[in-house]
Amino acid sequence: CWASCCACARREKQYVPRVVRVGIPDRKSNHPANVIRNQKYSVLTFLPLVLFEQFKNFLNFCFLVMALSQFIPQLRIGYLYTYWGPLAFVVSVTMVREAVDDIRRYLRDREVNGTAYERLSKAGAQTVPSSALRVGDVVRVGKNQRVPADLVLLRTSDRQGTCYLRTDQLDGETDWKLRLAPTVTQAVERDEDLLDLGGSVYAERPGRDIHGFIGTLTVARLSPDQQQQPEQQQMALSVENTVWANTVVASGWALGLVVYTGPETRAVMNNSKPRSKFGMTDVEINNITKVLVACVLLLSLALLALKGFGGQWYKYFWRFFLLFSYIVPLALRVNLDVAKMTYSFFIMRDKKLEGNIVRNTTIPEELGRISYLLSDKTGTLTENEMVFKKLHLGSTVYTDEADSHDEVRSLLQAGLAANAGGGGEGGSGGGGPDSVTRLGADLAARTAEAVRAVALCHNVTPVYDEAGADSGGAPAYQASSPDEVALVSWTAEVGLALVHRDQTSMRLRTPAGAELAYTVLHLFPFSSETKRMGIVVRDEATGDIAFYAKGADTVIGALVQPVDWLEEEVGNLAREGLRTLLVAKRRLKRDFYEDWSRRYITFDQLPCGAIAKGSVDFNRYEQARLAVENRSERMQQLQQQLDSGLELLCVTGVEDRLQSGVRPTLETLRNAGVRVWMLTGDKMETACCIAKSSRLVDRSGGLFAFQPASLRSADLDKELRNMARRVEAGHSVVISGECLQYGYYLPQAAVEQDERRFVQLACQAPAVVVCRCSPTQKAEVVRLLKDHTGKRCAAVGDGGNDVAMIQEADCGMGIAGKEGLQASLAADFSIARFQHVTRLMLVSQDTVHGRRCYKNTSVLAQFIVHRGLIISTMQAAFSAVFFYVAISLFPGILMIGYATIFTMFPVFSLVLDKDVASATAEKFPELYRDLLKGRELSAKLLCIWVAISIYQGGVIMYGSIWLFQGSFLHIVSIGFTALVFTELIMVALTVRTWCWQIIVAELVSLCSYLAAVFILTQYFDRAFILTLNFLWKVSAITAVSSIPIVALKLIRYLMSPPIARKLQA
């Protein structure tokens, strides 16, 4: 019964489709409130959750048990503060840090949830906070205002019903997205009339797909005599009619119907909850702690067995356990936490990492053991600025240089003048040539036609400032694809500027100042399936109808008439790292177009008032509704009938400008043994282009596209065998998000087996590119790598779509850039540019970053364990010699001093040590590769330190007993002094590069101890200490305990020097 209750409590919520009535909030259904909450704790859960997180750590839990036992008088050893002081300090520091972080999250959430919006109701417009919105509300979102919930667009300020969005915080793309209001709701005269339509929206169940939506809009339509019952009319809705939460309205205002709120919005469902990250070094130290606790138990049991199990033996067992608990010193956690804060302080002070912020101070050492770096593309590797580079006509190439612009401008003007004089486009009238690409055609005509095609075949819209187009100012171009903006901007620079664009028309301005008007008859948007776009336009001056197509060379190249230079030139552009697009044209005869258009009329092309007036034939309406529901398939069929007879006009080359330092950064990471995977939402061709231009993928090496024909086991196995052969040949791998969705989202055993094989092969590839990747899939890729490899993974991104990936990674790095601060705020480390990754992970100058941070943390942990082991060895020897007595060798005040002022400063100063100079670490990134083996805290090193501790502790204890002169106080004086001196010598032997801070720490500790010797007279015999007898005995014991260690270190250094010293030499 209890198991059933727990299963019910953990069961995920089952989402179902919904019907939302326009303007009538659904208060009966259990829809969540529209509240954003990124906090980890509440007022009630803060204390228990923080304490749970702290005491689930094995070391802290052990000391909690030991501290609680000191309330029992029979078990007490020393003072309470010796146990509760350090424990309270560690827990308090963590609680303060967690509280500050969560308060910051709360303040950010309160600001977002309190943003005011205008809600439309029958009582009039009301201003309400974002948190008050409910499913069914109609809300107005103004220009540059964040969308508060997932909306279905109903009406916009644009007469055509268009609206532009900035979606950078959702999908990582900074280009504006076009959204359309349904014609029925856009046609109403006033906003309030929307509430009288009796409309409702059928919406699919909440999901994570930000690129898709299935829904239906139903409105009431009165009969012509308005006496019969209103008829219902339906219109299919797609993602083009939606406005997702966390996007921003970029133009005008938009009126939308709330369909999903709060945790059911696409943005929230694609984000993962923030989690407390626990570094691998902490895991290793935790495991070492468990081993040491087991040793304490065995040692306590052994002494108890030698003493005998008579009487209240369990009290003696616990007292022995407490006496030997210094083997597991709580100072380890205190020193590690302070060291991590020190590392974070140094990182933020690095002047060469200007603008960086450490937001998570618990994992800075993880930067030193990253095996996989998963990077976003847009805005992370690239500047997200497309620049036109080349236009190829076959025999002629135009570039982005000023001289080339002047040449194109003059040829364009001549070609347009010739076309006007010829009586039609391209000389189509008066017996002119039938094709502008016919051999021997005039260069001016070919150039003019190519530029005109580039200026027409796109989905770009000019956006003017408040003064409007009449002010004469140049427009800003917006589109869903940045390469289209680059191409249209280039045509404007050479003299053919796009000055107007709406759903049905387009106007171009020539170099002479005249305007060319075109009617947009049909538009076929780009899709990942077709890999091309098309547009049918009519020249208003001549009446000529033409179909223009633009797309990838693999698609358009197979449709156009054969051209001998195409393959070679496309290859040349690709090798330059340019994104290539082919532009082609087909002239359409009027009777062919009318027949084609008549058979494929679509609902979207009907006049706004046609549905409301009932003037549409029912059969034609049903055909149109079907076309809307199966839009992509019908559009492909439509376009295929226009593809035959296409003639190639030109090949364009556009460059996505890389960030400065990306190529050397990727090269350095590759040499350091870090595998880089690129995860992007862009299409495969774009991703492959950037992978090659950034040198993520070697140009001499191939790129294998993993695309199984189906999910059948045979097809998957065949594709995996092909992948194995290509990876073995040194090829990189590219995979689409659709393949990932079919892969590890399915639970079948066969698919899981193929998943393991795929990951094993992908990890062997030089690089991996994942394209068409949603935010959730990015996080799933990170989780996939972590689960199957067990290696440490880092993620770097700059947009809201990268937050889930950054939070899932062991070490998340966010770039504060053009796409906002969402990734930066969610990351563990905030940086300004991608090139800072190598400095953060590999190289540091006068500071402690990644590599050095991990090495120094490991040395610090080993030395603190040695410090506890040596004094516990002395305690064990003392108890054994004095008939297994369960009393402390040294007084509590000396034990506290030993763990703090007498040895703390030299031991902690090891965080400033460095094995090689910064120049050497920068010159040889291969040094980082050595850390990926994880040998800095290996079992072998632990055994070596245990052996050293047992030897030194035994020598000091038995030497003190052998040389003492009739007073127990002499044992304390000789033994404790030799212990402190030995510890200071061991620090000196461990230091690899001396600095003034380490020297000062050694001198401060030595002087502090000497002062304590003369101050604490109740523990030290001052008369005995000032004698020569004391000095030679302490010197002899210290020498015997230290000289063999020095000799062994020297022999090892000479016989097998570390690789760092070899490189530095």
UniProtKB/TrEMBL annotation:
Its cofactor is Mg(2+). It is a multi-pass membrane protein. Mg(2+) binds at D376, T378, D798, D802. Residues 121-266 form the P-type ATPase A domain. Residues 825-1057 form the P-type ATPase C-terminal domain. InterPro entries: ATPase_P-typ_cyto_dom_N, ATPase_P-typ_P_site, ATPase_P-typ_TM_dom_sf, ATPase_P-typ_transduc_dom_A_sf, ATPase_P-type_domA, HAD-like_sf, HAD_sf, P-type_ATPase_IV. The active site is at D376 (4-aspartylphosphate intermediate). Keywords: ATP-binding, Lipid transport, Magnesium, Membrane, Metal-binding, Nucleotide-binding, Translocase, Transmembrane, Transmembrane helix, Transport. Residues 27-84 form the P-type ATPase N-terminal domain. Pfam families: E1-E2_ATPase, PhoLip_ATPase_C, PhoLip_ATPase_N. Its EC number is 7.6.2.1. It catalyses: ATP + H2O + phospholipidSide 1 = ADP + phosphate + phospholipidSide 2. GO terms for cellular component: endosome; plasma membrane; trans-Golgi network. Gene3D superfamilies: Calcium-transporting ATPase, cytoplasmic domain N (3.40.1110.10), Calcium-transporting ATPase, cytoplasmic transduction domain A (2.70.150.10), HAD superfamily/HAD-like (3.40.50.1000). It is found in: Endomembrane system; Membrane. PANTHER family: PHOSPHOLIPID-TRANSPORTING ATPASE (PTHR24092:SF5), PROBABLE PHOSPHOLIPID-TRANSPORTING ATPASE (PTHR24092). NCBIfam families: ATPase-Plipid, ATPase_P-type. Belongs to the cation transport ATPase (P-type) (TC 3.A.3) family. Type IV subfamily. This is Phospholipid-transporting ATPase. It comes from Macrostomum lignano. The lineage of its organism: Eukaryota, Metazoa, Spiralia, Lophotrochozoa, Platyhelminthes.
